[in-house]
Design brief:
There is one protein chain. The protein is of the alpha/beta class. It folds into two domains: 26-201, 3-Deoxy-D-manno-octulosonic-acid transferase, N-terminal domain (Rossmann fold); 214-398, Glycogen Phosphorylase B (Rossmann fold), CATH 3.40.50.2000. Helices cover 46% and strands 15% of the residues. The strands form two sheets. The protein has a seven-stranded parallel sheet, with helices on both faces. The protein has a six-stranded parallel sheet with strand order 10-9-8-11-12-13, with helices on both faces. Helix 5 links the parallel strand 4 and strand 5. The radius of gyration is 22 Å and the shape is globular. The protein starts with a helix and ends with a helix.
């Protein structure tokens, strides 16, 4: 099976570079650092290397508490942070600057991975969340690199997908030195797929602190919103903005402002055009302006400001949950003490979402009609919003501590 997998990767490699060219039409950063995707990674000096892979933005932010802890406790090591996307790389640069060395992870062909490991010689490898690469895992085992999968999560849907390729997934997971799972349910699914050393350590995202300038940015946003009731649509996905605008058209509430923050920056312009096609003015965060009193929508087309949007809003709906995308992470909104609305599709964060609902930090809505009704009810019920916000903060605080548990596992 590994030979077939390698053959398919080899045949697909030219198309992988064509994909980079295609993505570069909107994100020119995809044209940079191509040699790294073939394993040509340069290091700043000869210190021993701790390598951590965070595929994109979400994983990079989630890894922040662990990276800061490793930098503080292992100052005699180089921390190599690898990604698969330019947005992940940009996030790493913004969060850690020159404290880490950044590169792209090579494509999963044995000789490319071998080149990467030979050039970097990591004493420890850490992979965030659900990245399972058979060649990478096998080469780490052959090179004697202890490899850990941390903050690991595996939904029932993903587990069914991996089972179809069990002859690849089982030996890969079995080769790991250890796995730090988020929940008991994640651990059980991983064990069913062949993982051996699995420990439940909790979710690193509960340990993520907001950026130092969050209070100042939130205050700036609140001034721009001029005391209006802010309904935040956090990390929306394709198709959800149209649904939200349909709901907004049904709501005749005084001073209601819908703030849409799309999940992917390459969609900012498309969402702006969609808003304008509805006959609505579209003030944008990137343009520095404030919404006029008559504006009903504000586009949050900025990166790294979700914590500030969370603090500046009165109510939030979690993107990716209104349509079948599996939902985005609700922890940041909960930690800010703001009430949340969740759509029916939250399998990416199933346990967290269910607990948030159970503890009164969030409400589940099934369709656009229910969403409109929930916004109306919470708009008029400040006491209920406060109760939900307090429940969210208690929920977030009660789950902290994953960083120390993972560090103990790595030791």
């Amino acid at each position: 099976m590994r030979w077939l997998y390698t053959l398919l990767w080899l045949l697909g490699l030219p198309f992988a570079f064509l994909y980079l060219l295609w993505r570069a039409r909107r994100q020119p950063e995809y044209l940079r650092h191509w040699p790294e995707r073939l394993g040509f990674v340069a290091l700043p000096d000869d210190r021993p290397v701790i390598w951590l892979h965070a595929v994109s933005v979400g994983e990079t932010r989630a890894a922040a508490p662990l990276i800061h802890a490793l930098l503080a406790r292992q100052p005699d090591h180089v921390l190599l942070l690898t990604h698969a996307t330019p947005t992940g790389r940009a996030t790493g640069q913004a969060l850690f600057g020159d404290a880490v060395t950044q590169a792209y992870l090579p494509y999963d062909l044995p000789w490319l991975v071998r080149r990467f490991l030979t050039r970097t010689r990591p004493v420890l490898g850490i992979v965030m969340e659900t990245e399972v690469w058979p060649s990478l895992y096998a080469e780490c085992a052959q090179h004697g690199v202890p490899l850990f999968l941390v903050n690991a999560r595996l939904s029932g849907r993903s587990a069914r997908g991996y089972r179809r390729f069990g002859r690849l997934a089982r030996p890969a997971l079995a080769s790991l030195t250890g796995i730090a799972a988020q929940t008991e349910a994640d651990a059980a699914r991983l064990r069913e797929l062949g993982a051996r050393q699995v420990t439940v350590c909790g979710n690193l995202k509960f340990d993520v602190a907001p950026p130092p300038d969050t209070e100042a940015r939130a205050a700036e946003l609140r001034r721009a919103f001029a005391g209006r009731f802010v309904w935040l649509a956090a990390s929306t996905r394709d198709g959800e903005e149209a649904l939200l605008l349909d709901v907004l058209a049904q709501l005749d509430l005084p001073d209601l402002l819908l703030v849409i923050v799309p999940r992917h920056p390459q969609r900012f312009d498309a969402v702006a055009r969609l808003i304008e096609t509805r006959g609505l003015n579209c003030p944008r965060r990137s343009q520095g302006g404030a919404p006029a009193k008559t504006d009903r929508v504000f586009l949050g087309d900025s990166m790294g400001e979700m914590a500030a949007y969370a603090q500046a809003c009165d109510l939030a709906v979690i993107g990716g949950s209104l349509l079948p995308f599996g939902g985005q992470n609700p922890i940041e909104i909960a930690a800010a003490g703001k009430p949340m609305l969740l759509g029916p599709h939250t399998w990416n964060f199933e346990d967290i979402s269910e607990e948030a609902v159970r503890r009164g930090a969030a409400r589940r809505i099934q369709d656009a009609e229910a969403l409109a009704q929930a916004v109306r009810e919470l708009f008029e019920a400040a006491a209920v919003r406060n109760q939900m916000g307090e429940a969210g903060m208690a929920f977030a605080q009660g789950h902290r501590g994953a960083t120390e548990r993972i560090l103990q596992l790595l030791r």
